[in-house]
Every structure is written in C-alpha cells, then in structure tokens.
Amino acid sequence: MSSFLWKDWSGLAAVRRFDAYSEREYFAIRTTAGLQDYSPLTKYDLRGPDAKRLASRITVRDVTKLGKGRIAYTVWCDAKGWVLDDGTVQVLANDWVRITAAERWMHWFHDLSRGFDVTITDRTEELAILSLQGPAARRILNPLCAFDLDKMRFFRIRQTQVAGIDVTVGRTGYTGDLGFEVTVPNAQAGAVWDALMEEGRPHQIEPIGLDALDVARIEAGYLLQGCDYHSARSVITAARKSTPAELGLEWTMDLDDREIPCVGLDALRRERDQKTSRWALVGLAYDVPALERLYESYDMPPHFAPEACRDAVPVYAGRHQVGQATSHTWSPVLKQRIALASVHPDEAKPGTRLLAEYTVDFDRRRAPVTVVDHTFFAPDRKTSVPGRESA
To answer: What is the DSSP string of 82-135?
Structure first.
C-alpha cells in the first residue's frame, strides 16, 4: 500500500498508480488485461414511457432510434450549443435509459424532464463500474459470465450475471482497446473484482490506476473534460467553451429528422450550415529526432516517460499561435510522442507541419510536429467479434 499514489476523483479517493511507476499497468492494458474501478462516474437512470424521449431531449443523440441493448457515446449542450459534459447513453429497455457522466446533472436533467412521463434516479452511490480492458479481457470475463461474450458486438450492453451476481455488461471502455465495463451494486463490487482478478491471474491481469489510463486514452484519441475541453457550466468566456463539432464530435450528433429536439439544436444546425466552427481537433506527432537534438543541445539525454501531461501548451504556424495541445504523452506502443490539440481549421489538414511549445531544463522551446488523425491507436480487436456477428 505504501507505493500507491492517490488523487481525488469526484470527491472519492482513486488510485493513480499501484507502484512507483505506471509502466506495468500500461502494458497490461495493451498486452494482457487491466482492471480499474470507474465508480466515481455519475450514473442516472431514466425510467418510464418517455425515457428515450427525455434522453433525446438532453443529449445530441436521437436516443429514440436506439434499440434495447445499445450504448451510444454522446454529449449534451446548453441552449447556445456549448458542450456541458460527455458520457454514454445505455438503453437497458424501451422504458429504461442510463446516462453516465463526469459531473452531477440531476437538477439539469430534472428541469428538462417537465412534460415527460419519466422518473430520474441518481444511482451514483449505489452502483460501481469495473472496467476490464486489454487483449485478454474477453478470455477472462467469459468463464464468469452467464452470457457468451463472443456474441457481443461493440457498444452493446446486456443484463446478465458475473460470478453469480446480477450485473450489466457493456462492451465499451476508455482505453481504445478490447474491453468490457461491468456495472454492479456497490455492496457486491468487491466480490466481482476478486473473481475477475482471480480468473485473470493466469493471463497476468493487473489492477490499473488513472496514470496508465491517461496514456491509453490519449493514444485512443479520447477527450477528457477539464483538460481537452471545459464544461460551459464552469467557464465564463465563450473563448473557453466548445461545440461538439469543435471537439471532433460531429459523428455523435443527430441534427436532422429528430422526433425530440435536443437542447441547443438550432445553434448546432446554424454552426454546421454556416461553417462557423473556430477549432478542429487533431492529433500531433512530434519529430522525435528533432526532440533528441533539442535535448542534446542542453547536454541532456532524451526524457520520454510514458506519463500524460494535461498542461495546455501553444501550437504555432511560424510565429503565429494557431492552437493549443491539451493532452500529450510518450506512446510506448507507437514509440512516438503524441498530443491531442485544437487548432484553427485552416491548419487541420493531415500532414501540416506546425510547432508546439516544448520545455527542456525549464527553458521553453518549440518542437516540430505534424498534424495527424487524433485516433493514434485503434487495434482491430477493439471492435471485432469472434465467429458470427450477433448482438
């Protein structure tokens, strides 16, 4: 326990890493499997005849078009189209939808529920989420699960049992790898955790902390609220706010042929039609030989630790700042320093050469980077299904 490093996550103590360094946990995600507790995520159950209609009102997804057992990644916005938060919508039944989020939204959801036949329950304190991620995840979970996971497609969810305990299992995750998330009542979460760790022992499973997860989610191109974007509720100026399109999330929006208009729909349509997005989400690949020469000029060896940095740094085209890199890390699997960045749309074309601020020995310099797709790592195993395709 003495080597554990902790941090606050929504008022709860969460492990950053289980050892002095996080490399072992990271490589478990990418080569075997890692297990992590996501319980601090907020969870809201919408139940009643209008559950899917209310979820469509709240989020930019048209949830009325999603069938039972589907999960969708989504965001929700204020009336001006600024993003408030992101999370998942899980359709557990035609009259039962669960929304996960980073922050608390009970009052917002309740205000929007007027006129809908639905009951909203905050399940955050009742339910734990255990995330099993990595190439061996299916082989570990399958023997414990009452449902054949070989038949589960990506972004599907099912009520079943794990180790004889009633749970929901969703094929999702925040690592960009093969993975499953098990939602279980808090009182029984320890038993499910122990069963997964015991079953995973021959597969070299590791408990995973937030530091290793941070590196993996950057490789996957996944955004983090409070880092790659800020909730419109928590900032004052429009310059700090973002629309879904500015975050590269156009694919999450259903703007046409909706039964229920979402909050901010008019503003989102106007941005799309008038092409007024101020930013574009991109990936940046650093010129590693140039970084090595930069360190050499200080008579220092290169320092490329697999640790995520959440400090935003300027991105330049020549002498002019054209954006900011918000999450950056060394990727062990890609052998590359990478970053998620927001840049002006004119600078977002893949192959564009830019400069990003880079600090060596407390001296701020500029390092050459190339614009690339922000999804750096997406192995086929993340979405593939063994054998026949089945929901």
So the answer is: -EEEEEEEEEEETTEEEEEESS--HHHHHHHTTTS--EEEE-TTTEEEEEEEST
Report which DSSP code applies to 6.
Answer: E
47: exposed, middle or buried (Cβ count in 10 Å: 0-12, 13-18, 19+): middle
**What is the per-residue pLDDT across 174-209, written as a single tens digit (0 to 9) for each?**
999 999 999 999 999 999 999 999 999 999 999 999
Q: Are 133 and 178 in contact (CB under 8 A)?
A: yes
Please list, in sequence order, all residues whose beta carbon lies within 8 angstroms of the beta carbon of residue 236, skipping any fewer than 6 positions away: none
pLDDT reported for residue 2: 53
Using DSSP bridges, classify how beta strands 353-360 and 363-372 pair: parallel, antiparallel or unpaired.
Answer: antiparallel
pLDDT (mean) for 120-128 = 98
**C-alpha R_g of the chain:** 21
Per the prediction, the chain carries an average pLDDT of 96
Tell whether the model's pLDDT for residue 390 goes beyond 50.
Answer: no
Residue 158 tokens read as: 């099912």
Count Cα neighbours of 62 within 13 Å in the Cβ-side half-sphere: 11
User: What's the angle, vertex CA 297, arms to CA 292 and CA 299, rounded to 5?
Assistant: 90
Please tell me the predicted confidence (pLDDT) of residue 303: 87
Tokens of 58: 């709240």
Kindly report, residue by residue over 158-173, the tens digit of the pLDDT: 999 999 999 999 999 9
Chain centroid to CA 80: 24
Contact 363, 298 (CB under 8 A): yes
Walk me through the domains of the chain, giving residue ranges and CATH numbers: 5-41+124-208 (3.30.1360.120), 49-117+243-274 (3.30.70.1400), 280-372 (2.40.30.110)
In the block, tokens 């989504």 appear at 74
CA gap 381, 383 in Å, rounded: 6
Distance, CA of 216 to CA of 28 (rounded, Å): 11
CA–CA gap between residue 37 and residue 270 (Å, rounded): 40
Angle of helix 210-220 relative to helix 23-31, nearest 10 degrees, comes to: 50
Contact 13, 5 (CB under 8 A): no
Question: How high is the pLDDT of residue 387?
Answer: 59
Q: What is the three-class DSSP state of 197?
A: helix
